[in-house]
Structure formats: C-alpha cells, structure tokens
Amino acid sequence: MERIGRREFLAGSLVGASGLLLKSKLAIAADSVAEPNLAKAPVKMFDPWEVVSLGKTGIKVTRVGCGTGMHGGRHSSNQTRLGKEKFEGLLKEAYDRGCRLFDCADMYGSHPYIIPALKGISRDKFTIVSKLMVWDPPAEEKEKPLVTIDRFLKELNTDYIDLLLLHCMMAPDWNKTLKPYMDGMSEAKAKGKVRALGVSCHSMDALKVAAEEPWVESVHTRINATGTDMDGSPEEVVPIIRKIHDAGKGVVGMKLIGQGEFRDDRKLREQSADFVFNLGCVDAVVVGFESINEVKDYEDIVKKTVRKIA
Q: Whole domain around residue 289: which residue ranges?
C-alpha cells in the first residue's frame, strides 16, 4: 500500500462541508509537526492502555485516562450526576479494561468515588490527579493550601495524590500572584502528600508561563485537531506544548473530544486522536467518558485509527 504524508492523510480523509473547515485547520496545524519518513518507517497501532512516563515526574500513567469533570462545576459534573452506582461502575469497568489514570478535581466533586470504585486494588496500581481551585475557596482554606490538600486526602481516602494541579490558570502572572499556593503545595510534596505538581491551563498566556516556570512539573493542556475549546489554534498551541515536553515536563491533553462536541461525530474523534497522539509531545490524554460504551469506542478508535511510527 502506497505510503502518504501525514498532512495528506489528515486532510484527505475529510469529506463534506464540515470537513472543509477541519481540512484547512489540520493542514495548518500539521506544519507545526515534523513529518516522519513513512516510506522507510514501519507503522503500528497505539495501545490506549500502554503505560508511559509522565515527563520526568517519575509517575507512570496509561496513555488514555478517565476524566471526571465533563461540564463540571460547583462540586459536580456529568459523571457525578450519574449517581454513585453508575459512576463507580464506570470507573471500575474502565480499570478492568486497562485504564490506570483517573483525573479528578475539587470543583467536579469526584473525589469520593475513586477509591470505592477501585476497592481491593493496591493504591500503587493506579494514578490519581486532582486540581486545586484558588478562586472563592472556603473561608477557612483561603491561602491555606495545606488545609485544602488534607481535605482532598480525606475525601479521596488516600495517603497521597500522585499529581496535584493549580486548576484553570488563565492570568499571565499566575506564578507570581499564586506563590503562597505554590509554596504550600511544595510543602505538601516534601511531606509525601503529593508526588508531583503542576497546572491546568485555560489561556495562551498561562500556557506560556507554564512552559517557563521551573516549579511546574506537569501541565494539563487543551488540545485537539480543530482548535475547539482550546487556548488558541493548533498551530499556535503545539509549539508551546512541544517546549513544555522538551523541558522534561509532563504533558496531559484535555478536550480531545472538544468538550463533548465530537461525541456524536466519530470521524472527528478519529481525526483528533490521530492528530494528538502523533504530535510526539503529549504523554497522555484524559477523556470525560460518561458510559462504558464510550470507553470501548475510544479504545477502538485509538487501536484502529491512530498510527504510531515505530
């Protein structure tokens, strides 16, 4: 079968009116990615449950993780709104299929579900991510991150959080204004309550700061093939993500299904997965699955669609 270039593969597989817009965006974004020599390089498929290193954090994660914050806010999300039985069943079935990365946050209200869902499984067999929201905290926790982290540990019923992030960074000077939180999180890490620290970013300015800030060990960044619900277009965001990755920091992709906008469009989910995994600078991704069928569908997409250059 004749090999084709990455840009031609991404653009040529799109059809219809909606495909025309995606085609132009993918073509531009592909310019940010060095094309491999497919004529010489063998190709194999990705394993979504392959265990990989998260930058230089020392943390191991599966390439695909379960997000728990679809349309999350005010301590609830689509996942928690499923109810205890369905949500915990979803988490356990995802684990049974191979998922070892579970992404939580205080604002999602998902902390209490993880350990009960994985009851009987050794804590070192899976990775928990959580996020600390600094805006409008409870009065007793304002600028007291250690108090907040102790609450997280109690809610999660665990002795440590693998990766703790400052949640939803947008300001260009977050690393200055939030220094008290950063110092408290570092103290928690020194005490063994947290293994690694970082940020989730929701603006280009914040993402650029994350690339330069030495305190940051891992970054959650919004990335997909079309720029949907991202901090900028793929051609703007990819070079910054590459800089973060090249600095040895972990990179976890979010919004691969466009905050749910691709949920009913398998072609877009396929294109986005192939694009992101082949960037070579995204360690893992988290997807807000709301049913085990969605887990199975995404597993199928990654195994059958994403091409990996061996």
A: 45-309
